[in-house]
Structures are given as C-alpha cells and as structure tokens.
Amino acid sequence: MQTYEEQLFETLNLESQLIENAHFIECTFSHCNFFEMKIKNCVFDRCTFRSCTCAGTDFKYTDLKNNDFHHCSLVGISWDELKTKNGITLPFTAFENCVLKYNYFVKLKLNQFSFQGNVMEECYFEDCRLEKTNFQGCQLKNTKFTKNNLAFSDFRDARDYMIDVQTNKVKNARFSYPEAVNLLTGLGIILD
Q1: How far apart are CA 39 and CA 144, in angstroms?
Q2: The CATH number of domain 103-186 is 2.160.20.80
Q3: Given 5, 123, 141, 167, which is the most exposed site by the fewest CB atoms within 10 A?
C-alpha cells in the first residue's frame, strides 16, 4: 500500500479513474475534482478537503477517518459505507460551507455534530443518533429524517426539511416559525 503523509494535492482533475491501495494521512486536497472515480482499498485519515468536488464516486473497501470538508460539493455519498469497521470514528469531523446532494447518513452516531450553514439537498438521515446536533441555518431542501433521535437538536433558521414527528424523536428540539409548520405534514393536518 502506497502511503502519503502531510502532502498537498492541488487542482487535481480526475475523471473515471481508479485509485487503489493508497493510505493518505493528514494530507490536504485543494481545488480537486473527483468525477465518476473508483476508489478501492484506500484510507483517508485526518485529511482536509478545500474547495473540492466529489460526484459519482464509487468507494469500495475504503475507510475515511476524521476528515474535514470546507467549501466542498459532495454528491451521492453514502457515509455509512465509509465509516471505520469498528464504527468508533466518523468519516468526517467537519463540514463548513459545503453543498451536499443525495448524501446518505444511515446508523451513524452524530451527537453534537454541527452541520450549521451547509446546504443539504435531497439527503437522507435514517436511524442516526443526532442528539444536540446543530442544523441552524441549513438549507435542507427535500432532506428526509426517518427513525432518528433528534432530541435537543437545533433547527432554528433551517429551511425545507422533511421530519416525520411520528418516527423521529424530537423532544426538546428547537425549530423556527414559520418553517416549523412543516412538522405537521406527517400528522395529516391541513392548515388553511
């Protein structure tokens, strides 16, 4: 396995290529584009991604551990498939000013995580631990929440979320008016 430590990768434009058997430790990826890539048997450990785009990438037998994403566009990523085998560390530690489209978060422990200020379109959260998680100011267009624990989470100034209050635990979660009216949708209530 090829190992890269504390290296800077800038302006890479990779499309329909294979990256395999590589271990990236504390590397920085800046202004890189990864389209329709196959990433196999790799590890990304404590890396930083700045102004990168990742779309249509297929990850196989790959672990991401404690990575930071800043001003990135991330499309079609199933984060639950990228957590470490022991499940102790998350694939990410921060999303800052990112756009996430069609991302899946399933059975992840995201307690006290901050998604604040990110754009998350048509993402899906299922069976996640999201207690005290910060979604303040997020644009959550068609993002669905199913069977999650959202207790004490903060959705103030968040918009366009789809939270079924019958399948999610929302006790003590904070919401802003008028967007909070969306919580009534799953109850079959009609407002005139």
Answers
A1: 28
A2: yes
A3: 5
Q: Where are the domains of the chain?
A: 1-77+91-98, 103-186
- The whole-angstrom separation of Cα 78 and Cα 102 is 9
Residue-wise pLDDT tens for the chain (192 aa)?
899 999 999 999 999 999 999 999 999 999 999 999 999 999 999 999 999 999 999 998 899 999 999 999 999 999 988 876 666 678 999 999 999 999 999 999 999 999 999 999 999 999 999 999 999 999 999 999 999 999 999 999 999 999 999 999 999 999 998 888 888 877 777 777
Residue 185 and residue 38: Cα distance in Å, rounded?
A: 40
* Distance between CA atoms of residues 175 and 184, nearest Å: 13
Do 158 and 140 contact (CB within 8 A), yes or no?
yes
Supply the pTM of this predicted model.
0.91
CATH architecture of 1-77+91-98: 3 Solenoid (2.160)
Fold matches, 1-77+91-98 and 103-186: yes
Q: Smallest Cα–Cα separation from 68: which of 108, 113, 132?
A: 113
Closest CA to 173 of 151, 148, 143, 157: 151
**CA–CA distance, 35 with 8 (Å, rounded to integer):** 19
